[in-house]
């Protein structure tokens, strides 16, 4: 059972102690009302100061903000409760260490993950997941009830590695088992009762628990050397070289290191940054923290990887961290490539590099280049080599025995007179072939994956030579005995024996032992800052490197900064780009998202600037360079050459840098109160279509990135373009938010600014860090879509950007491009049509006989299309079916109907029932306009909606009443909707039929004639009914 707990002997019983239990208890103490109160900690979270008097004050300043951030994460999960993965509980029982009232541990068996009803949308519960235990799968907050408790939380504190559906939880309250928690199921011929409980995933507390532990260090055994170094303003941090080192000439780098650096063709600022870090690493007089400032495109990752390669060559035990898995994988990949190129004997030496973390979150299966250094993969490979019976040592002994005395091996392998015994030659051939194959594989695995501290270079050479010897040997060499063959065999036996004696490792090592072996002997380790908590019990680490340090919360950097033995750190980042993501507004205002890198810069600590950018065309780099970096960044010669200027589309508007004014955009609210601008969506789609056409005709490879600060706009653009470019190899499109694009780059970047209003309100678009990231992702072309009047009606960076574009003659109106002008016109017309539909969701077309009910889903699907021509076709189809001109098949069991709009789009609609005054009325309910290929998926989703309808209501939806070629709507009085009321009573239903409202009837001659016919029919039907009732009464009396 896996878990982050300690086990202590106390009164001859094992007591489980959850690390970070104080934080867990705070979470458990919140009621539902507390969780839903976004202002629960308002006024209780103080702003984190810039300097601190002691480490105690330092740690304490982060405690309340991290509690508030945990609260915000839980509140956010409540808002998406309907989509939360839910796992059916198969069995639950108190664990051995269950001890009320606090230690409420339970062992839980979840239904196997192959069961679709409990799969949790593909997610498995993990260690430190926070779950709600409920009676039913919840769809709203009220559904969180468990037995008599309105709200019961539990923390997953153990997951069985072999059976992930077996977990241990710590509950906030006792889980009471009642009869109501049992459900009856048929199993075979009998009936079996099972639990009716669910574990509903809310959030994962792993990172916040690790931060909490770092904020409460062991007062006796913690390493606070670097923490104490950053409490106050201190020029030594990030400052010049150590005075003692300078006096003793200890900071002078050997010539071979400077020569090695020059081989990587680094610029002066990159070389200087690396040398200063290597000097700090050698300092024994003080603890150092170096800052490397890497603006966009300045080769920050290259500088980091070359620094790490040199530390690897110097045998310096170094941990490299980053805030995200993506950043960790990027730098690890670069370093592995550099190290692999410098290795002398195949992969020998890669065993000194370890990458570890969550396999699924890292998506390691997609990173074949990192398989050889990923810890889990390495342990699995080595585990087979260290099995007692089939491991490398056992196979070496078998090979020695076979080469020394094959006849004796043959004799011992079979019982005498065994009929199944093969011939001696065949036996030797088979045994030798298998052992040779196994040893070749196992020797290669040991050379590749064992750290060099456990396997010397000389032993690796022997393994390589032995493999060559065995490969050259034939079966006849093993069977026959001559001087030549005997000498070769003898050499091989001696080398095999020498290998066994040289490796001082046990014959058998379990997976945990192998993990420890790899981590304790590695020289370069890579993981997220949070995952570095796993190294707190390992061997000392000499140097810490934090990549993307400006994106890491300072309280999170406290996890690796306290690692045992750590004396020096290098922080690499850019505080001018995005900081860490914070969910809580209260915690954000308290500066929880501020990084240690940023705080040290605020205090005036020196940072080593990488001052040459290699990414952007000078026309792109000039504005961010002046606005954010004070013109300190130089353009590399490679981006200043004429060949770096690319013209993908004709016209000045599509040059290296353009601001394209979109004056008639429509700013709207989208998902989650985020903003979107459908006109800009249409323009992005049009530009992408043009670029794709160029790429397809010319065979030119083009990568395009579309960036917007607003998630609703990102979603709208993704919906608009769909999957039309997914199959193209030479044309790639990536649509992401600004936050999702940090660290990325593309040939062309299109920025959609969204905001379009008369107030000049631009919201968080004014954030300078976010703007900086958006403007520095393009290599060759940057095209910005925006509303000039909105962006200039304030004093933000965007006003200066528009003025700069005008001054440089890079300002263009979208109307200057004919295709864009037509696109704006179509979008504006479509938006007007959509506004009319949204204002009146229950439509009546002129002379129509059906009411048309428009769903929100339908209106949203129109928003993603926004094309006036398609809108006209949709309205034409709606008018046709509202006149009753649709299929009259009453026997069909399918509720859903489909009308083709064009070759690629279909309209999905149903007949539904609405209550109007004292009647239920059939109406046409319009659900979607979507690609024809998506119709089946949409129908499956709609089936869930109609499952909530009663049988009677479904039958009335299906009922068809026709008059000639026209289908007319039915109407039933509310009183008729009783359980025993059957829709098959056609005469009664038809008698109550009213095609239109009274006011509408008077305006239509056809409707009046229909009404007169119905009234005559009513009189005859009523008289007939009266005589029938009287006749029955007379018969009963008689």
Quaternary class? single chain
Q: Low-confidence parts lasting 5 or more residues at pLDDT below 50? A: 1-13, 113-121, 189-193, 978-1014
Characterize the biggest β-sheet: 7 strands, parallel
| N- and C-termini, Cα separation | 84 Å
InterPro entries: DNA2/NAM7-like, DNA2/NAM7-like_C, DNA2/NAM7_AAA_11, DUF6469, P-loop_NTPase, SF1_C_Upf1
Domain DNA2/NAM7 helicase helicase: 265-585
Domain DUF6469: 128-216
Domain DNA2/NAM7 helicase-like C-terminal: 592-788
List the helices and strands and how they pair.
Layout: E1 5-10, E2 13-18, H1 21-29, H2 32-36, H3 55-79, E3 86-94, E4 105-110, E5 129-134, E6 153-159, E7 166-171, E8 182-187, E9 190-195, E10 198-204, H4 206-214, H5 225-229, H6 243-247, H7 255-262, H8 268-282, E11 288-293, H9 300-313, E12 318-322, H10 325-342, E13 353-355, H11 359-362, H12 375-385, H13 392-404, H14 406-413, H15 424-449, H16 457-472, H17 475-479, H18 483-502, H19 511-521, E14 524-528, E15 543-546, H20 554-561, E16 568-573, H21 585-589, H22 596-602, E17 608-609, E18 612-613, H23 618-628, E19 634-635, H24 637-640, E20 657-661, E21 667-669, E22 675-677, H25 678-698, E23 702-708, H26 711-721, E24 731-737, H27 738-741, E25 746-752, H28 768-775, E26 778-786, H29 788-792, H30 797-807, E27 811-813, H31 818-839, E28 842-843, E29 852-854, H32 856-865, H33 868-882, E30 897-900, E31 905-916, E32 919-931, H34 935-946, H35 951-958, E33 961-963, E34 966-968, E35 971-973, H36 986-991, H37 998-1002, H38 1005-1037
Parallel strand pairs: 11-16, 11-17, 12-14, 12-15, 13-14, 15-16, 18-19, 20-26, 20-27, 23-24, 23-25, 25-26, 29-32
Antiparallel strand pairs: 1-2, 3-4, 3-10, 4-7, 5-6, 5-10, 6-7, 8-9, 21-22, 28-29, 30-31, 31-32, 32-35, 33-34
Helix pairs in contact: 3-4, 4-20, 8-9, 9-10, 12-15, 12-19, 13-14, 13-15, 13-18, 15-16, 16-18, 25-26, 25-31
